[in-house]
Amino acid sequence: xxxxxxxxxxxxxxxxxxxxxxxxxxRFGLVWILTALVALQVLGMAVLxxxxxxxxxxxxxxxxxxxxxxxxxxxxxxxxxxxxGATLLALAVLLAVSLRVxxxxxxxxxxxxxxxxxx
Length: 119
Known about the structure:
Layout: H1 4-28, H2 30-54, H3 57-78, H4 80-118
Helix pairs in contact: 1-2, 1-4, 3-4
């Protein structure tokens, strides 16, 4: 339950989710993010339905298997400690970039609010 791989997967999921959604939440607000999530969910269902209808499900499965295989090969090639360290470093860089983008968007939002207020 508290294996290093499980903890790393949880941290990776949390970090990627935060790094993707934080800039958009700052720029567009929570209502637009929830709307986008619902739209992406509907789009995902439509893509899977079309893939089933036209028999392209094997292609989607192949992409997923290839990505999982690549991660497994990297884990085997680097060793467990280096792989976990590299993953944590990549997540830290991703969060730092997200923070910079969020700060930039927030500064632009404040500037836009100040300019529109004076008009």
